[in-house]
Design brief:
With about 625 residues, the protein is an alpha+beta fold. The chain is about 20% helix and about 50% strand. The protein has a domain of about 150 residues. The chain is built from twelve helices and 31 strands. The chain has a 31-stranded mixed beta sheet that branches. Pfam families: AsmA.
């Protein structure tokens, strides 16, 4: 084809197109009335009984495309959606105009204010055979209402709704709760979906705080039903929850979050199967169901994980650097936020300084009462089973702990639970304690119950009782300063302690070793973390009775003072007997004071020169 013939072809095509436009313009002016255009637009928007469409002014133009320009439009009455807008542009199909028919190709709403009642049906009506026009929204606002009132408001909505032969696709940008989001929704069979039948559905929403995607099927018949694959992702779940005014109830954690699984939704019931969850570095697999009763969620499920780190979610009850318990008030909102029944298994669970291995248990939360049941787990290099119950009350929190541990590492146990390392070795433990209070400090002062410990070969750290006894046996008044340091080996340790209102009473505490035997009695304040104990330590000899010495343990848990009984020391020294008699007559009350024993000195003993603090 030559250039001249090509130019002629283009000219004929343009002339033909111009001719069609001219004919269309003539038909538009002569054969099509404003009432026809109004009716066509009303039909495209979803004409139905009980609905009305009104416009303040209508202007029909033919160039560059046939279009109807409406001003001050309003769609009111019954139906899922109503709106008002300052302007609406309806682009008309050209070919139907040539035969005198009006068909709308596209609708453009500028700054509309739309109200959508989700109980009334889909926002956009479906038309058979893809005859519905495409719809564009520029800078609009959509108020979403439910049966109980307003649900959400979307602002700065710029979106496009495209109709295929059977499908509807919605895509665009908007602001939700002052955050920009991008959304996409595809309904495979719009007509079926509109009449309450099953249809393929794809959805994706991207926001600064989170991303949510769904690919499956849906039915909308008074309530929404979904079935398909779901995926959610958030770099900061706490931020995403706050975006929807949801309080995560726990003060720590809730950073990185990811979820994948098969989702089934029926009204206000959700089921997640074959799920993979990630939260704050924890990964778990399993299934969950959620339903709502009286506005409160009920969660049930089974989860399994390799490692769970619960430290960020645990209330800090550890002692302060000053030596006292944490006095911050418990936050009990988590106990009443939901009801739950979850079965959990993990290769390792970490919380604070403690960890459990190969743990299997259950979490039951109902009516503000939390029950944690541990079937069996590896703990402190031994085995542990037990229950922990927490309940919210007007005074704070009620606590109940029942636990049985076997073959545990006593050093790790003491360091983890009490912040003190006093015993080496392995043993068995039985704990039954209850208390209540508004803070960890108040809880410690209210504890009541019983603790039993039995151990085989091990050692008491922080003091060498055998060395002390042998030194005092030889020189009763020399070297009796601070006797801390060293370790004392034992073959058997038996502890039975009664706890009442935060005060532990030692009923039976016996430590027997190859060289010494120690019996302890007295009290220990759990609330104040102090000791006020007395005991008797004796050297074990093969023949006859060994040397024995009463002693006193007083002071804070972390660094108690262990000193011999001063009167016993002086009585064992014949040369000091007159001094003792004068001291007791002159200052007997002072001799009995706590500070006396704690300092390892005998007050009012004139000429004694004090007690040496050197160590041989």
């Amino acid at each position: 084809m030559t250039a001249r013939s090509l130019a002629k072809s283009v000219a004929f095509a343009l002339a033909g197109f111009a001719g069609v436009l001219v004919v269309g313009a003539v038909v538009l002016r002569v054969a099509v009335s404003n009432q026809d255009v109004h009716a066509a637009v009303f039909s495209a928007l979803g004409r139905d009984a009980g609905r009305s469409f009104a416009a303040g002014n209508l202007r029909v133009v033919a160039w560059p495309r046939p279009a109807a320009l409406f001003e001050d439009v309003a769609m009111r009455g019954e139906g899922p959606a109503t709106f008002t807008a300052p302007s609406l542009t309806a682009t008309l199909k050209l070919l139907p105009l040539l035969s005198g028919r009006v068909e709308v190709d596209e609708l453009v709403l500028d700054q509309p204010e739309i109200t959508w009642s989700v109980a009334g049906g889909p926002l956009v009506p479906a038309a058979p055979g893809g005859s519905a026009p495409d719809i564009r929204i520029n800078g609009g606002r959509i108020d979403i209402d439910g049966p109980d009132g307003a649900i959400e408001r979307l602002e700065d909505v710029t979106a496009e709704i495209e109709h295929g032969s059977t499908a509807i696709t919605l895509s665009g940008t908007m602001r939700l709760r002052d955050e920009p989001i991008e959304a996409y929704l595809s309904i495979g069979d719009a007509a079926a979906f509109a009449r309450g039948a099953r249809s393929a559905v794809r959805f994706k929403m991207t926001a600064p705080a989170a991303t949510l995607a769904f690919d499956g099927h849906a039915v909308f018949n008074r309530t929404l039903q979904l079935e398909g694959a779901v995926a959610a992702d958030s770099s900061a779940l706490r931020t995403a929850l706050a975006w929807f005014d949801l309080d995560p109830v726990v003060r720590g954690g809730l950073g990185r979050f990811a979820l994948k699984g098969d989702l089934a939704v029926s009204g206000r019931q959700f089921a997640l199967r074959d799920a993979s969850l990630e939260l704050d570095g924890n990964r778990a697999e399993g299934g969950l169901t959620v339903r709502f009763e009286n506005g409160q969620p009920i969660v049930q499920g089974t989860l399994a994980a390799e490692t769970l780190t619960l430290t960020p979610y645990i209330v800090d009850v550890a002692p302060r650097r000053t030596g006292g318990w944490n006095s911050d008030r418990f936050d009990t909102s988590a106990l009443t936020a939901a009801n739950a029944d979850i079965r959990l298994s993990a290769g390792r669970i970490v919380f604070g300084q403690a960890s459990l291995g190969h743990a299997a248990g259950a979490v039951l939360l109902r009516g503000g009462r939390l029950s944690l049941t541990l079937g069996e787990a590896e703990a402190f290099d031994g085995m542990l089973r037990g229950t922990l119950e927490l309940a919210s009350n007007p005074e704070g929190v009620e606590l109940r702990v029942d636990a049985v541990a076997s073959d545990i590492d006593l050093d790790r146990f003491g360091q983890t639970l009490f912040g003190a390392r006093r015993f080496e070795g392995r043993g068995a433990l039985v704990v039954g304690l209850a208390g209540q209070g508004a803070s960890p400090a108040a809880m410690a002062r209210s504890l009541t119950g019983e603790v039993k410990v039995n151990a085989g070969a091990g050692a008491l750290t922080g003091v060498n009782i055998e060395q002390i006894l042998r030194r005092i046996e030889k020189r009763p008044l020399a070297g009796t300063g601070d006797l801390r340091g060293g370790r004392t080996a034992f073959n058997r340790l038996a502890v039975q302690v009664r706890v009442t209102d935060g005060v532990a009473t030692c009923d039976d505490v016996v430590m027997e070793g190859p060289a010494v035997r120690v019996v302890v009695f007295g009290t220990a304040s759990v609330g104040e973390r102090t000791l006020d104990l007395k005991g008797n330590a004796g050297l074990v000899r093969a023949a006859g009775a060994g040397f024995e010495l009463p002693f006193i343990i007083r002071g804070p848990w972390d660094s108690p003072s262990v000193v011999p009984d001063a009167e016993s020391l002086i009585r064992r020294s014949g040369a000091a007997a007159p001094l003792l008699e004068r001291a007791v007559r002159r200052d007997e009350p002072a001799a009995a004071g706590p500070s006396t024993a704690a300092n390892g000195a005998v007050p009012a003993v004139e000429g004694a020169g004090g007690l040496a603090s050197d160590t041989p």
